[in-house]
Amino acid sequence: MNLSTLKPNTSDITSETLEHINGYWRAANYLSVGQIYLRDNPLLKRPLKKEDIKLMRLGHWGTTPGQNFIYVHLNRIIKKYDLDMVYVSGPGHGGPALVGNTYLEGSYTEIYPEITQDENGLKKLFKQFSFPGGIPSHVSPECPGSFHEGGELGYSLAHSFGAVFDNPNLIAACVVGDGEAETGALAASWHSNKFLNPETDGVVLPILHLNGYKIANPSLLARIPHEELIKLMEGYGWKPYVVEGDEPMQMHRDMSFALDNAMADIKKIKNYTTQEDSQVPRWPMIILKSPKGWTGPKFIDGKPVENHFRSHQVPLSDPIDNDEDFKQLEKWLQSYQIGELFDKNGTLKKVYKELAPQGSRRMGMNPNTNGGLLLKDLLLPDVQDFALPVKSHGDNGPGDTRSVGAFLKEVINLNSKQQNFRLFGPDEILSNRLNEVFDATNRQWNAQTDPNDEFLAPQGRAMEILSEHLCEGWLEGYLLTGRHGLFTSYEAFIHIIDSMFNQHAKWLKVTAELPWRRQLASLNILLASHVWRQDHNGFTHQDPGFIDHVVNKKASIIRVYLPPDANCLLLTMKHCLKSKHYVNVMVAGKHPSPQWLPYDQAILHCSKGIGVWDWASNDQEDQTDIVMACAGDVPTLETLAAVSILRKELPELRIRVINIVDLMKLQSETAHPHGLSDSDFDALFTKDKPVIFAFHAYPWLIHRLTYKRTNHHNFHVHGYQEEGTITTPFDMTVLNKLDRYHLVQDVLKHIPRSESKNDYLQEKMKDMLIKHRNYIEEHGVDMPDVKDWKWDI
Amino acid sequence: MNLSTLKPNTSDITSETLEHINGYWRAANYLSVGQIYLRDNPLLKRPLKKEDIKLMRLGHWGTTPGQNFIYVHLNRIIKKYDLDMVYVSGPGHGGPALVGNTYLEGSYTEIYPEITQDENGLKKLFKQFSFPGGIPSHVSPECPGSFHEGGELGYSLAHSFGAVFDNPNLIAACVVGDGEAETGALAASWHSNKFLNPETDGVVLPILHLNGYKIANPSLLARIPHEELIKLMEGYGWKPYVVEGDEPMQMHRDMSFALDNAMADIKKIKNYTTQEDSQVPRWPMIILKSPKGWTGPKFIDGKPVENHFRSHQVPLSDPIDNDEDFKQLEKWLQSYQIGELFDKNGTLKKVYKELAPQGSRRMGMNPNTNGGLLLKDLLLPDVQDFALPVKSHGDNGPGDTRSVGAFLKEVINLNSKQQNFRLFGPDEILSNRLNEVFDATNRQWNAQTDPNDEFLAPQGRAMEILSEHLCEGWLEGYLLTGRHGLFTSYEAFIHIIDSMFNQHAKWLKVTAELPWRRQLASLNILLASHVWRQDHNGFTHQDPGFIDHVVNKKASIIRVYLPPDANCLLLTMKHCLKSKHYVNVMVAGKHPSPQWLPYDQAILHCSKGIGVWDWASNDQEDQTDIVMACAGDVPTLETLAAVSILRKELPELRIRVINIVDLMKLQSETAHPHGLSDSDFDALFTKDKPVIFAFHAYPWLIHRLTYKRTNHHNFHVHGYQEEGTITTPFDMTVLNKLDRYHLVQDVLKHIPRSESKNDYLQEKMKDMLIKHRNYIEEHGVDMPDVKDWKWDI
């Protein structure tokens, strides 16, 4: 439905409805306990036996009853207002809640028909949970209605915002766990409300679920004065409703009231906007304070368990060998009186079933949670329109990312109707020289503005906040719900989201194995402002190791590109924006730099991903003395400069120049889908000639990727060696021995030539390095002749 | 001084003092502009010439004048109240401010005598800034008084808290930049106040410095309603004072007033506590709203620059080639009227000099900012007292980290007078089974408590919050100011602080190269709850890649240990706690597991870091058929189980078993200080025999470390291959082919034996794998015989 025409009504809830809600909640709670403990006797039709209990009991009870409570209440408002709503479980450890609720509403059986709505299905549902060959204990990809696993904590709210951008009638109900609320990413995420456009985006309804405890500690927000918590949420710009207690019927009433009020607020805000009221809206949120392990055992061995951290995982730890535990478990299971809720076949009774929404209104079947169902391909312009003319190999270009800016501008224009592409960056879109995108769009910003602001507007395709966590989290949420995007960041600081990348890569890996899950658009990351050009910043801003981190994940998911110039970058970018279900990492420069390949040559080179640059080589087949390989823009320049020196000084030396755009070509075909076969690799790199390899990042990565290759022992890799400071661009390569002079020196070490000639050239290189040092320490800038290098085409 | 006896007085500031403060500020601002632009003519004794200007102008002006303003006002209160204060520059890009101020107060010249307090010194000071061979543009290790670089943003407040723990009379004045305030780590850091003990810890005085803009965007907190910002800070538990404006004299007055009031509040809180008032204190903080690029050019080319993001870096970008820029720069420099401030020799006049504190009260000379000066060695117990008795190799142990818990308890007891050791963890100290530490101490917690809480107290050695960022940031601050600590975390989620580790490792690398900087205690990280035992959590909790990340940093700084059992872990832990200026990463298990080495053997093994386990081997020197290598507790178990199978089934096969504790032994001695020589390595691993290597983490790391070794092509490494879910512990090894059966299969592939025997054993291994699969899918637990493995000693 259209959220601006909501008709909230807070007076229509009867005691009977509340009783039904409570019954539904009891059913969900029972299913949760059943999943954790039982492998048989799912309806307790006979007295509980020890054989009914799983030998290994895994899972998290503590958060589960509260999430069951939230779920049934969200069901109520979905039905009442015909809402398009998704459920994001921040405390995703509470898998039993989501599995149980999607079972009760029928989604689970629709997706997994063997889990039938009867006793037999219940038995399977229980047994499979946290069981080898079964399903994980968390709200994992296997769980219908999930697009956020919550195994690692902190990203629920950012994912929720990502989900509702450009989804004006979607509500993401986001349960924030009180443990999670202590994380950095979550603490920053509350501010996302300043980036939401009430008219063109949907709604995030945060439910801060304060159970009071984490694994073994109280949680912070449960232990600050009430008025401080309210101020905190108001300070973050939200309008909080508090629902607090442990008496179920009163809590049902209070929660219903709070949700109806929240709906009224949402309607008001949605209508404000259409009236062009400029006030920053104060969206509603709910603070739900309910006992951890609610309705579970109150005491075990005399120690409090309900409303205590002891209920975090599996409260009765030993029901097979400990009789007291066994008795308490039986009593606990019986306490839900499921005979009233399920019929004798084990099917939920109609009066309860009717509480759940139907079809795709069920949160377990909402298509936004299986984003590939909704994914529309991006309309992409012809790269040729943006290609730089290259008349000589080495023509100066204005900065490779600038061309991408022009390309992305057109991507934004072409998809302005689809509204399914956004750009994310930590205040670095301009710094990374994507300036032209602001000819087509603005940064979306719903906080205060000033007449001198630039490119800020209530609606825009660019999302900027100085938080890599939020950029990544928003983008992930946007992708997971079936849209496209690009994250640009400084190379060094992308490590801030290493762990988020891990979780997303894991999500992609598992969803790719589930037939009912559809492919998503790839997570595209452009790392500009890279290690070699941190002129203003120095050592702290130098770390090219993100790609080391990335290649640890499944080869079927990850792709790494190092385009040497603008035309190759453009082609790579288009390729990545078209691709599905990968994480694509592109590394590129933003500073003026040499351009190597005209458009037609770039196409050929990028389609192969790796290749010999004949125009720079002077070897013949089978008559190569040395291979000079390079990957990355700066290493390519230094390699070509070194080759020029060598060809001038040692014209008889037969050199083969290889450039690598697609890094995974280096790995063997059995290790990565892009990998070259051994014979192709040998044909390129020879079986026995020295390979001097100039690499953008840490040199060991090349060894790691190529260690199985025939000629690997002849690879000599130059890369970043963690040496750097504020200095000139060329000096950065010198400090790390990636510069042309060191490359030439390394070549001389590995070729058998006339000694006198080698000695002479070694000396000359040494002299050049001294000349360089003296020059920069006097002038503070590089010698003019190290900036470019040209070859006729 | 003792902060509880502070005598705040807010009425004593005269107009004359304010004028002097303003003069000092002008001097600092002038020095900042001078550093960015000038290489000559530092006192403007002659008209500015283009040759006076640096060819490359790098740095960040925007934040600088505001920080100069803060610095002189902090100087005032340091003198007035005789404070022990350090300055933490969150917006650390503003290097010119800190360099300039430490120069004005004399610290800079004391540390770098060549930068004299005269015209010649000024010239050098200016030229060296952001100049090849000079100093970085940020508040880097080279800058006196800095222990927080601020190159990457977000950690200033956490570092400040770490600095004042157990430093009851230290005040960390922490300038939080408005860009930084958007980061996740910083957003969570405000809550650190709940962990501060007013009696035994010092004070953090945050100064939220709202310049209004980041690189190219307004900052969020500058664009929310005033009352929202106040609520936010109050919600975080702080008492905010606002200083806002751009008229210098009024701002000086307001800032003085705010700081005097803050001092009064601090005194009050310090005294409350001694009266055992249980109220959670509301510490003061300051919100300083001043224009970005204050006192710089107001407009350039008709566009606003002061109070705009355009002042972020170098506002007049082209003063050499653009005459208008040149004129404006000259005017700008002259506007500070330095003739009034410096005498004709270029020395700051006495009336201004007297505003700065003396000796170690100067923030540039505070010994807390060069923590090694204050570092006292930890008193460490004898490991033997905690060693587990091991009668057979493979005796069952209660969980390796449990022994460390007992050891750490004693570390805490022994150092209870020194109060210079703390334990940090994201609510995982108990989960990681370090339970015994709570016999000696509590978790420090100054928020509300409940009678059912456990191990919470206003003072304690354990710091727990569910934020890896805060744990790491606090610990870094604690170490940087000369104390010791340990961070324990789940292995997978330590990636959350990848980027923080980077920055700390870079800090260690650079400080090690500065003779005046003293060595710090190592940053010790214990990764328990590792990839192989995530029984309750599954795939999202599996990532052993932190050590891949770590080994990218300088070899002189990083150490990685994989102790196979409790006794080795104890010895490793003691070794790490004694060490200086490293990052030590230890990976260990928390679950009951086999113990391999009695104490005396463990000493020998750990002192070598790598060695043959003779008791498990049956080869003779030069008569080895195969090497079975292992690193990590689970791989060690699987290797020994595989060896047992092989020795039973193929008794004639001569096997050598090697265990690695110190991973960096594998690298060559030229690459890492711990590296084995090639001859030692060859003696261990042979030059030509197959090596079946069972490794804790991603297998490629072993290839990366050993690729230069003679026998590398014979290495076959088994490790984590990104396969996992909720399943049994043994099945995790099977899914990743690290289990005994797969290891035996791999051995069979690489040894030339009678084919029939090999085939028989291959089949047997296949059968075992099928038997395993069937067993776990029926019972949900592992077959009983895969848990342990014993050998007589």
From TrEMBL, chains A, B:
Xref: CDD domains: TPP_PK
Location of the Xylulose 5-phosphate/Fructose 6-phosphate phosphoketolase C-terminal domain: 590-791
Keyword set includes Lyase: yes
PROSITE patterns: PHOSPHOKETOLASE_1, PHOSPHOKETOLASE_2
InterPro entries reported for this sequence: Phosphoketolase, THDP-binding, Transketo_C/PFOR_II, Xul5P/Fru6P_PKetolase, Xul5P/Fru6P_PKetolase_C, Xul5P/Fru6P_PKetolase_CS, Xul5P/Fru6P_PKetolase_N, Xul5P/Fru6P_PKetolase_ThDP_BS
Cofactor: thiamine diphosphate
Positions of the Xylulose 5-phosphate/Fructose 6-phosphate phosphoketolase N-terminal domain: 13-373
Alphabetic keyword roster: Lyase, Thiamine pyrophosphate
EC number: 4.1.2.-
A Pfam cross-reference name: XFP_C
Family: Belongs to the XFP family.
Protein name: Probable phosphoketolase
Organism of this sequence: Zunongwangia profunda
